[in-house]
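Deliverable D5.2: sample structural annotation.
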Amino acid sequence: MRKLVLLLVLIFAVFMLAACGGGQAEVVPEPADPEPQEVEGAATSEPAPAPTEPGEAEDAAPAGDNEPEAQPDFALLVGDYLIEMDQDVAYVLAALGEPLGEFEEPSCAFDGIDRVFAYSDIQIHTYPVGDSDHVHTVFFLSDLVRTTEGGIRLNSDLQAVLDVYGDDYEYDSGMYTFTRGLTTLEFLIRDGKVANIIYGFIIVE
């Protein structure tokens, strides 16, 4: 089994890295005024409401209250550990343990090395950020791992995917792509069933 996994990761890694620059690896321009990103672990607080002036209705709803709340970025829960996109992979490896296999290749988009770490049920691709490696994509390798929301796995029905994630997706050649912030969750559908699941990060300059 170990040899089979290592063979699969080598073949798949070569294929993915050979296609560098396409799909998730595409670098897109950063917006002119990017939204501030919340720092993990930082304390946050809501501003206190302004005092009500005499004559103002106490129950008047401020503008924007009817807008839907932003959903959290896509992240994958593996056991008790949450793998977040663009996270330093060193923390992921420490939590998941030694991978079954590792593959590396000089990055065609960044200054450094692209790496692939293979486990029995998932495969993690990274990209270089300074002296560290950050999570870029996570591929499902078996139906023993499920999406954090709704528990979608390989061989789940397309309708189960839509029931959980809705109809706000992009479709291309069997791939249903859902986007939240700078993260994506992709489902490749074949004959009405999930054939592949990919968590990804959209890199901006």
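Annotation notes: The chain has three helices and ten strands. Strands lie at 75-78, 81-84, 101-106, 113-118, 122-129, 132-140, 170-172, 175-180, 183-190, 193-201.
The annotation will be released with the project's public dataset once the embargo ends.
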